[in-house]
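Tutorial, part two.
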Amino acid sequence: MSTMSLLVRSRVFFCIRGVERTEGCPKADQLPCEKYDFVGTDFSSAASEWNLVCSESYKSDMIQSVYMVGCLFGNIIGGYIADQYGRRHLSYVSILLMTVCSLVAIDAGSYERYLLWRFLTGIFTGAYGLVSFTIPIELVGAKQRGFVNVVMTILYAAGIGSLALLAYCVRDWQQLSVITALPGLIGIYYYWVVPESPRWLMTQGRIEEAEHIMTSIAVYNNTLSPSQTIHLRPLSVHPTKTRQASFFDMIRSSILRSITLNNLYTWFVNSLVFYGLTMRAGDLNGDRYLNVALAGLIEIPADIVTLYLTDIYGRRLTYSWSMLFGGIFCIGIIVTPENSATLQMILALLGKIGISMATCVSWIHAAEMYSTNIRNKALSICNTASRLGGVVSPMVLALGRIHPNMDFIIFGLSAVVGGVLSRGLPETLNRPLPETVEDVDSWASVPSGTHIVDLSQPEIMERSIRRLEEEFEVLERLNE
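Running the prediction step on this input gives:
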């Protein structure tokens, strides 16, 4: 959200009425502006393009809100498509359409058309964001999942920092938009480079295709000779059963219902606080480009620490304590003296670190809690709650401007409650990824590291044996 401020906001402008030139918006007893003069001929934004200031300033916020609503729809639609028709095709199609919509939006010609194209961009961004996380998580073994998750979040944070640098060097918003959109063309070669998820193929009964992909990976990593072939056991004797999984499977059993409701709240809170503290960076005194860069780059050390904490203490404890610390630091801002700007900034950054760690953990934790046949659907619903948090966050900040510190009270208390509730989620560290919703019910209440095989049910026994083989013999060997 804060990164969009480099494209859509303009801080300093002059109101011109005839020969009179005054800074800022006209007062209640003054005549309206005839035109606006934005300071700095080398700087432009959507605000300066369509005069989105004073009585029209709400339209700047609407650009981001409409984009987030598009992401919300993209999460829902993309989650369904990825689970029904595969991750790979959605990946390269969505990133290409995301790039096309971003480029078309630049030359929209009017605010209304720009808003429409930003909405469409949000749809394809939301769809791509989900599948871009799911594919790598499903391609690696249990020990590598935490590392892959942290690497992706670090790259995201580095992207925010690099955008601030680009915006500092390229002051025209349209040129900046072109530069940031063009890397999306990388999706052209996705079709030939990125394989389909073998796990998803297994849930669809397409065993031979999964074996071919696993063998290709092993040969490429020099862990298997070209003359050898990996053989995988079918998921169950009735693989077609897993094809009927739907959104309702997330709440069908009491265990999954509890997990889903818990995730919906904590994801909402993480986004609410994350974007709230990030947007607050734009309100800090100092250079706006430096503030945006710091808001992004400060996530990198948080993500690195998260990698070690999740591997030592597990996903659940790291998730819970990160939200608790983030909330406590937000509450701490309330009791600091009003003239202690530096201390407030430090507490805000510490709160951002805590909530960034929680956000980092939330993705890997949720992905490991849901089965392969509903994983994208589940992540799409969780991410929908997250997007709603992003939509509500600006409203909370507006409330804080009317009632000082009310925003930090809401952020802090919400995060503390989320930290307490997240203790009720199951631990997933070093567990094989569940393949069906029945698998989740079978291990969600069992301590991490324990594997239950019900010998009275051959299908469950076969799935358990196959998961153990795949996780501890095949995937781990492929990633050595």
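The first strand starts at residue 13 and ends at 17. In part three we will examine how such features are distributed along the chain.
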